Amino acid sequence: EEEIEKIENLVNQEIAMSHSVNPKVCSFKQAVADGALALFGEKYGDEVRFLTIGPSKELCGGTHVSNTSQIRLFKIVSESGVS
User: Fold this and answer.
1) Coil, strand or helix at 27
2) Which H helix or E strand runs over 5?
3) Is-contact 67 23, C-beta < 8 A?
């Protein structure tokens, strides 16, 4: 419970910093070279959507906010593991 609260606080601090969301489309190889983490077992095409959000670099295919302040609040509602 204490660890979850610490994680929520860290994420909410980043949200409050109002980081710009900077998307670009590039090759999967270029995104990984630029710092994106590829998840084990996920399949990626030749071109990917690569987001830089403050210190975070992510591969993602969804629609996003243009600034982290639009998220407003992060709350962990459940916890599970993956193998």
Assistant:
1) strand
2) helix 2-16
3) no
Q: Which single residue is written with the structure tokens 């399949």?
A: 43
Q: Say how many C-beta atoms besides its own lie within 10 A of residue 58's C-beta.
A: 16
48 with 27: CB under 8 angstroms? yes
Task: Evaluate whether 17 touches 54 at the Cβ level (below 8 Å).
Answer: yes
Cα dihedral 63, 67, 72, 73, rounded to 10, equals 70
Determine the Cα–Cα distance for residues 69 and 35; give it in Å rounded to an integer.
23
pTM attached to this predicted model: 0.73
DSSP state letter for 46 = S
The greatest distance separating any two alpha carbons of the chain, rounded to the nearest whole angstrom, comes to: 41
- The single-letter DSSP state of residue 69 is G
Residues 40-55 pLDDT 10s: 667 888 899 999 988 8
Q: Kindly tell me if the per-residue pLDDT of 83 is higher than 70.
A: no
